Amino acid sequence: VEPPGRGLLNGGPVRILVTGAEGQVGSELSALLAGHDVVALGRHDLDLTAPTLVDDVVDLTPDVVVNCAAVNDVDGVEADDRPARAVNADAPGRLGEACGRLGAHLIHLSTDYVFAGDKAGPYDEDDTPAPLSAYGRSKLAGEAAVMAGPGTWTVVRTAIVFGRRGRGLVETILDRARAGQPLRMAGDLRISPTYALDLAGVLVHMAADRVTGLYHVANAGSCTPYELALEVVDAAGLDDAAVERVGIADLARPAPRPPNSALVSARLPTTGIAPLRHYRDAVRELVPELAARTAQGS
Ligand SMILES: NC(=O)c1ccc[n+]([C@@H]2O[C@H](COP(=O)([O-])OP(=O)(O)OC[C@H]3O[C@@H](n4cnc5c(N)ncnc54)[C@H](OP(=O)(O)O)[C@@H]3O)[C@@H](O)[C@H]2O)c1
CB of 151 within 8 A of CB of 158? Predict the structure, then answer.
């Protein structure tokens, strides 16, 4: 199967720098771009907090930078927001500065957690952010820094990312269910689970076309974490008895969560890029793959 957007980059030489290339989204994006002029760097090869960041990026001479690096530990950031401020808020502005020097285009990822969560329906790009958590505030500051930068940019807000890297909500649910551990899942939060591979496909198109502006990119549909857990367990053919519906307050998380952070990709259709499939279809595709891999012990 031809990866999404692969043919799009054949219009001319384009060097794409992927930061945070070992994360959920960065690793899928780097894999989709294999065979193109891609420089995919994880934290150890390109640390976004390095004082030399701007010069380091300029030396790599990218035409497009896709910033997939972030500090995503929402509860950890609530206790100490310094790493998040450095990576999520300050570094994006410095990437923008480097892109401005090069005439390169910057694609930056942000989050549904920039919203307060009191809207009745899913959030579109015209809605006003009002983050509840320190993580959300750091990401909103990063968006603003990118938008204020000297070059062209795309800001892509996504949500509740899951994938094959073993860090997202779907993998966590699956691991716990397979281990026979209880799953106390919030039934009072509305979320838009998003498959890293599907998002990466859109990023390839955006890099190829240098699409500009702010976009929401999430899989279609929304659910509660409780409903997601039932779907994951069902897709894995496991017993759902361990899945318990609780309220988010019962989980006593340090950082507040928006009650509703579902996103709708209202602007994406204007770019000609196809919106993402329903999250349920992505879950049904991924879970058997993860389960088979775990069964093989790899
Ligand atoms: N995950 C979600 O549920 C979610 C939801 C909404 C939006 N987003 C956004 O989507 C984007 C991609 O998220 P993801 O799920 O792919 O996250 P991820 O799997 O946590 O990947 C982020 C990567 O950034 C790296 N990183 C951290 N600090 C760095 C630094 N100082 N320099 C360079 N790299 C650094 C991390 O490395 P280490 O592992 O070594 O720390 C990790 O590999 C982020 O902008 C995130 O805010 C994610």
Answer: no
Q: Is the pTM of this model over 0.85?
A: yes
State pLDDT tens for residues 140-156. 999 999 999 999 999 99
Ligand 1 geometric centre to CA of 71 (Å): 5
Dist CA 160 CA 192 (whole Å): 6
Q: Is 274 helix (H, G, I), strand (E, B) or coil?
A: coil
Quote the ligand 1 centre to 109 CA distance (angstroms).
Answer: 9
Range 174-179 contact pairs with CB under 8 angstroms and sequence separation of 24 or more: 174/232, 174/236, 174/287, 174/290, 174/291, 174/294, 175/294, 176/242, 177/229, 177/232, 177/233, 177/236, 177/238, 177/242, 177/243, 178/236, 178/238, 178/291, 178/294
135 is catalytic: yes
User: What is the greatest pairwise CA distance in the chain?
Assistant: 57
Instruction: Report whether 113 contacts 253 (CB < 8 A).
Output: no
